[in-house]
């Protein structure tokens, strides 16, 4: 760009020289001499002027380029990223917290705490910290701050204890207690867990106003829940036409025999269902008559005596002549092993007596 401007000025200078030469030819010799000298001086001056103008133009062009660059830099500097909409902090929790310099965390202002929490734009974590750690809720925040300004620790303690004494309405309390019962039963916890200090602390951390029931109350609630569940299952079984059963007897590690009874049925949509009806200790002796009496009592309790379908299935298989009956392989294998051990029956009996002696309580 500077080179083009320089060429233009040179062309203009040459045209000016030509006009001066034409004027000199028309004048007389003296004036021609003077004009020639003057033309030379003008030529030099014009050359000098052209060079100065060239420099000025070049500098101006460079200045323009620099100006454009500086303008672009200034514009880019002035272009700030879009600022986030900062909502006013109107929540009551901000009386107990302050933001860090970078605004990414908040610090609890209660003396001796100074807990630092991450700030995500919602005060929910701060509310949880105040209620769970300091037992401060929105209802007592104003009174707590007033007592804190007075420096009255007794008043602060009374405010917190009064807040702790509050509880949920009866319906909400019962609903939460059902959740606790579900936890105790589902995870096979001892009933005494509801009186454990750590368990109570954990529950109060989730909900300050929930009163954890004692062991006695929990037993009563579980009994009521069992009765309600039993009636619900009975109504479900009454709607079925036929039910199949599976039985299993086994001994625990403490050598206590149990009998498990499970009901099976298929819905109209061919969906299989199963339900454990009983898992009770089976008293001695374990004969066929004793087991039969136990099962009859169990079926009467559930109201399904007329719905047992095992005999019908066996009779249908024999009447339809669908094939030879295949007995249980595991049971057959067990019988064959038992017959094979008859050879060492004397030795086996001695081993059984030794095991029974070692398994018995030595204090008896």
Q: Would you kindly provide a written description of the structure presented here, covering whatever features stand out?
A:
With 364 residues, the protein is mainly alpha-helical. Helices cover 59% and strands 10% of the residues. It contains twelve helices and six strands. The protein has helices spanning 2-26, 29-78, 124-133, 138-150, 153-164, 170-186, 197-206, 215-238, 288-302, 310-320, 329-340, 345-359, and strands spanning 97-99, 105-108, 116-118, 244-251, 257-266, 272-281. The strands form two sheets. The protein has a three-stranded antiparallel β-sheet, with no helix packed on it.
- The side-by-side strand order for the widest beta sheet comes to 1-2-3
Task: Count the beta strands.
Answer: 6
SSE-based structural type: mainly alpha
**What's the Cα radius of gyration?**
51 Å
- Apparent shape: elongated
Order of helices and strands: HHEEEHHHHHHEEEHHHH
**Which quaternary structure do these chains form?**
single chain
- Average pLDDT number: 74
For the biggest sheet, the summary is: 3 strands, antiparallel
Uncertain stretches of 5 or more adjacent residues = 28-69
Helical proportion, percent range:
55-70%
User: Which percent band covers the strand fraction?
Assistant: 5-15%
Number of helices: 12
- Distance between the amino and carboxyl termini: 116 Å
User: How many structural units, i.e. domains?
Assistant: 5
């Amino acid at each position: 760009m500077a080179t083009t401007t320089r060429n233009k000025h040179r062309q203009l200078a040459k045209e000016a020289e030509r006009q001066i030469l034409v004027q000199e030819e028309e004048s007389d010799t003296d004036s021609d001499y003077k004009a020639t000298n003057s033309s030379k001086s003008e030529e030099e001056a014009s050359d000098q002027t052209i060079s100065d103008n060239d420099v000025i133009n070049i500098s101006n062009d460079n200045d323009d380029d620099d100006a454009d660059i500086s303008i672009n830099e200034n514009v880019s500097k002035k272009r700030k990223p879009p600022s986030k909409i900062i909502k006013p902090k109107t929540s009551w929790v901000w009386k107990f917290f302050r933001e860090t310099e970078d605004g990414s965390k908040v610090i609890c202002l209660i003396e001796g705490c100074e807990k630092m929490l991450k700030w995500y734009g919602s005060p929910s974590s701060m509310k949880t910290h105040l209620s769970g750690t300091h037992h401060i809720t929105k209802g007592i925040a104003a009174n707590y701050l007033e007592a804190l300004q007075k420096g009255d620790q007794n008043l602060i303690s009374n405010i917190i204890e009064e807040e702790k004494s509050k509880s949920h309405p009866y319906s909400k309390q019962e609903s939460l207690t059902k959740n606790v019962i579900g936890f105790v039963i589902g995870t096979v916890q001892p009933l005494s867990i509801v009186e454990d200090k750590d368990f109570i602390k954990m529950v109060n951390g989730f909900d300050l106003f929930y009163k954890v029931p004692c062991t006695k109350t929990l037993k009563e609630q579980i009994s009521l829940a069992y009765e309600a569940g039993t009636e619900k299952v009975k109504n479900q079984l009454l709607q079925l036409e036929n039910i199949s059963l599976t039985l299993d007897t086994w001994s625990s590690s403490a050598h206590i025999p149990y009998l498990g009874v499970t009901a099976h049925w298929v819905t109209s949509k061919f969906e299989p269902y199963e339900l454990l009806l009983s898992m009770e200790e089976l008293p001695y002796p374990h004969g066929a008559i004793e087991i039969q009496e136990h099962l009859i009592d169990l079926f009467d309790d559930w109201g399904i005596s007329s719905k047992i379908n095992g005999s019908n299935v066996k009779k249908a298989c024999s009447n339809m002549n669908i094939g030879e009956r295949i007995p249980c392989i595991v049971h057959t294998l067990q019988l064959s092993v038992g017959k094979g051990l008859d050879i060492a029956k004397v030795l086996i009996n001695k081993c059984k007596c030794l095991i029974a002696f070692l398994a018995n309580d030595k204090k008896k």
